Structures are given as C-alpha cells and as structure tokens.
Amino acid sequence: MNNKLTYIFPALFIVAFIALVLIGNLGPSKPCSDKSEFINSTYNAIVINKYLDEKNHNFKTVLYSTNNKLIEIRFIDDTSGYYEFVKPGDSILKSKNTDLLTVNHIKRFRINFDCKQ
C-alpha cells in the first residue's frame, strides 16, 4: 500500500500541474487580444503625450485626444518605430480592420503586437 502511494501522489501532482498549465493557456494571449482590439478600433486623434509608463513595466505609452476624450495605448512589443517617431501635436489616423497608423497624413506604421496566432 505504501509503495503504491509513492507513485500515486507524484502522478497526481503531475496531472494537476499539466491541467493548470493547459487551463491557463486557453483563449487568446494578451498580445493577440490587444491586436484584435486595436484592429477593430478607428480614430482620428492628436498625440497629447508619449512616455514610458513607470507604473506599468515602463511600457511605451502614447496618450491621444479624440472626440473630447483621452485614449491611452501601450506599445508593448512594437518594433515598427512608431513610438520613436511620433511626437506631441501629431495627427494620427487609424482605420478599422487594419493595423496601420498614419502620422500627419504622411508616414504609415504597421504596429506589431507579437501575436503568435
């Protein structure tokens, strides 16, 4: 009896661990859900500020004003150069169903969300 418990408890632990890992990986990843939300959005905005959000892992963050409301977007894994290029006062256009941002009607950036799906 004692010999069987030696094998049963580690086996149950392994099964429980695998189940928890699989349950945690169900649904879209954060980068993929962020990308989906971004692609489905549309706005014509003015850049108010850009900064590294010290309270949120120093993520690259841009604050926009559009339709009398403020929008804050974090560009966590973006490698397009958008964050480095944009500056306060720039006009930003974002059409629905695309991952492109247009700055001042001149330069376009395809935003990368590091989504593996």
Question: What does this molecule look like?
Answer:
- By secondary structure, the chain is an alpha+beta fold.
- It has a domain at 30-110.
- Helices cover 32% and strands 32% of the residues.
- The chain has three helices and six strands; from the N terminus they run ααβββαβββ.
- The chain has helices at 2-24, 30-39, 82-85; strands at 43-53, 59-66, 69-75, 91-94, 100-103, 107-110.
- A six-stranded antiparallel beta sheet has the order 3-2-1-4-5-6, with no helix packed on it.
- Strand 1 (43-53) and strand 2 (59-66) form a beta hairpin.
- The longest helix is centred in the N-terminal third of the chain and has 23 residues, at 2-24.
- The N and C termini lie far apart (47 Å).
- The model has no long low-confidence stretch (mean pLDDT 82).
List its salient traits.
3 helices, 32% strand, single chain, 6 strands, 117 residues, alpha+beta, 32% helix
Helix percent reads 25-40%
Low-confidence stretches: none
As laid out across the biggest beta sheet, the strand order is: 3-2-1-4-5-6
Let me know the largest β-sheet: 6 strands, antiparallel
Enumerate how many helices there are, as a single number. Answer: 3
Please identify the structural class as seen in this structure: alpha+beta
List SSEs in N-to-C order. Answer: HHEEEHEEE
Report the portion of residues in β strands: 25-35%
Mean pLDDT across residues? 82
Outline:
elongated
Number of strands: 6
Oligomer: single chain
Round the Cα radius of gyration to an integer and report it: 22 Å
How many angstroms does the end-to-end distance come to?
47 Å
